[in-house]
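Sat 14:20. Reprocessing the chain from the morning session after the first attempt stalled halfway. Input below, unchanged.
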Amino acid sequence: RAAGLFLDSATTSLRLGSVGEHLLHAVDHVQAFDVLHRAADAARAEGATRQSVDLLHLAMTAGDHLGEDRGGPRATVAKKLGELLIQTGRLPDAERVLRLAFPRARGHSAHGVAADLLRLHGRVLVLQGHTAEGKGEIEAALKFAESKGFNTVAAEACGDLADVADSAGEAEKAVDVLRRGLALIEAREDRDSAAVRLQLYNRLGRIEL
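Finished this time. Tokens:
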């Protein structure tokens, strides 16, 4: 009960993280997972990337003890952790997290997250120099996302494929795939689509200069 009262007043990532760790040590894995996930999001919003990574790792630890009905949220945490590990250059760690999370997400019918996990894993492989294999995974993520109607994820995959093409000196192909991505989300007005749309336009402008 005391932890619950503390949680109601917790407004910063540090305070949320403290509550989450307390719940984890108390073996309250359900609440610990949710609070640590919130704390990690708060830390990321505050620009505290390393703290967010640590909190996501703790959330993953709590998530390992949850039932099968929480497979979707666990996959979302893995995706966020993979993104931050890529951002901070910890590619081997990112590769492992994303590789292990993908089959779980797909098995729980978390199709949008599964497509994103596959896309991110492909991006890691490209960054590690396994270009053909990584490109194949990104293409598979694009096809999978499109087939399930997750156009924002598909558009992000187009952006990743454009980066691969641009790095290979194939500017025309990069432009074509970026325009394909923009077409997928041009009419969408949600925040995630707007952010991806801006990224694709920025890439397009850089390539066409």
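Confidence is low (pLDDT under 50) at residues 1-10.
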